[in-house]
Amino acid sequence: MAKSNEDEKEKEPASEAIRDNPDRFLHEGQLADPDSGAELLNNFLARISGQISVVPDTDAGEFDDIKSIPWSEYPEIEVSPDLGKKVTDLQVIASSIDKRAFDLGIDPGLDLSKLKVNYSGSLNPAQLAAVLITEKPVLVIAGAGSGKTRVIVHRVSFLIEKGVDAQSILLLTFTRKAAREMLERVEILLHDKTAGNITGGTFHSFAAFILRKYSSMLNLPPNFTIIDTSDSEDIIDLIRTELKFSSKDKKFPKKSRIYDIISYARNKNSSIRSIIHEQYTGLIDYIPHIELIYSGYAKYKTLSRILDFDDLIEVLRDSLRDNDRFRQILQDHYRYVMVDEFQDTNLVQKEIVDFIAGKHRRIMVVGDDSQSIYAFRGANYENILRFPETYRDCVVIKIEENYRSNQTILDFTNSIIENARIGYKKKLFTKNLRQSVPVIRRVFGQREEAEFIVDRIMELSEKNVPLNEIAVLNRADWHNRYIQTEMSKRGIPYVVVGGFRFNERMHVKDIISYLRITYNPADAVAWHRVLKYIGGVGQITAVSLIGEFQKSSDPFSFESFKQKKFYTELLTLGRMLAKASRSEYSLTQKIEIIKDYYAPILKAREDDFLIRMQDVDVLIDLSRKYKDLDRFLSDFALDPPSKRVADQSQPLIDEGEEQGKVTISTVHSAKGLEWYAVFIPHALEGLFPSNRATDIEEMEEERRLFYVACSRAKEELYITFPRNIYSYDAFFHLPSRFLLEIDREKYVFDKD
Hints:
By secondary structure, the chain is α/β, with parallel strands linked by helices. Helices cover 47% and strands 10% of the residues. It has a seven-stranded parallel beta sheet with strand order 11-12-10-13-14-9-17. It has a six-stranded parallel beta sheet with strand order 3-2-6-7-1-8, sandwiched between helices. Helix 1 crosses helix 2 and helix 9 (203-213) packs across helix 15 (309-322). The longest helix is centred in the first third of the chain and has 19 residues, at 81-99. The chain starts with 13 loop residues before the first helix and ends with a strand.
């Protein structure tokens, strides 16, 4: 799959950006081709002198109706023989499901009358079947807005009511918040705390828990620490620098790109060489160098007793595969396994699930292949499609009743997915029969598109639709640039989903690094971070110091460095770390000890010292919930207290509700959410779908992404596109191919 990471921002058309701010591009050197840059600059200067018009005279975008555009205008989608065979195989699997439709009737021998929960009265027939079938493999295809969380909650409740030990239930989700909310709902449903004994969480948090619990059996250091993505990138940068690759070749890939390649290869269960040949052909000459960096990266982590996110999953998978005793322990402990959002699992995660569930086979996976949009993370949509191939005796249940959108929106989204070449066929329906036909609007340019969207937002607001029930969903970040400007001009409050994560703030990472050292004195990554604040200690000296610390039986005694000019500062640091390591202090007290040491350092470096210290107070407040330092560090690395922080000047504990603000978000970040009204701008071929999608597999993911965007709308849906958008290497003027495929009676087409 082509990289479509929402965080790897799609490049804004250079001509558009230069038109608005040419100096920025000239100074930052963002023009890859000097000749094309000179031409663009000349065009810009000619335009402002009145020699040429801003928009060339063209017939592009001139059509009476979307359906009048011939398909010959669109590029054909590549289908190689191997890819064609894969598509055919998946089509056969998907079609076989409909041929063995499951009878949704309740087993007549099952008496539900004596149970606390009225399952029959709370669930529709398909949901009820998914809850009651517990002794064989079950695949639940849950369409958008069909109440899959309700199914999982009631299934857990039913298992407990029928006498299953809560400790034998494993619930894997993709956010800790989702698992926590599900189990809280089970407790409310049953009016007891039994669900608290269930193991529920993300693959990563589950792996961290299990690996730490069985560390002696798996030959792992019990005090290993977990590093995040930025820490991993820093290690890679250190190794790259030590090997002098970056100084030899200025084109050598940066640390973030190298990390992406390594992580993507691991998540795809593939080699670095094959991933570069498939996805990064411009880096083929650097394959031996990147493989060497990866080797050094792996050894560095072992010496420092640290694991990265991918290690957690890989080590658990490898241990389950290779250690028979360990595998049997987990299989006998977790006799009922449930996985949410199964379409988002990667190959390694699927293997973990199969190993644990392989003995008892009481597994239920829930998901929607039509919402598989995370290939850039290594997610494999084939996992959910091939589940019946892995578990040939499985029951497949499709939940198609929707509780989110009105029927006109469902008719529209059903039409999108009906044209999919890959996936299970489904047709969502609802009892919400309100009529609000989706609108497709063509406008003159990007400014006119922004004006149309903001005009409609203001109209909705005047009709008492709360602003936080309105969203603008973009394929790429730069698609909302004019919209943000127009909303600011009119004083409409909005929140952009993006910005720095709480745990990525410099001062927060510093405090956590001190804590990590007290727990794992061999953590070289944390040492590098804190030693940079010691005067006279550069990177080379730091490497030497850390080597000494790792060999010492007393890592916080620095007597051997008395002759060094930085000894006094080092001694102060050592005394603080030794004090913060003492077992008689609580976690909160440890952070307060670190805070007292760190505050003067931060004050000397940052003008906004007081604001930043508020974030440290947030950490102290969060720590009160924890008894164990290892649990706090694991949770902080795997599930930071704030998902996103848009306002960098204010501390934030939890994302919470953005009351009274329009949401502007990428589609990837909007999955699982819903709004009264949704706007999707820039629906032009090459933008949505992205022009990076060149084969059938990539185009199908773009279709699913478009489907996810449209299916977020509850009552009103607007899709807009300008007549054309220019780039230095492309000209976008055709409406998205997905719009051509939709039945004409299922939307209103409006044009300027």
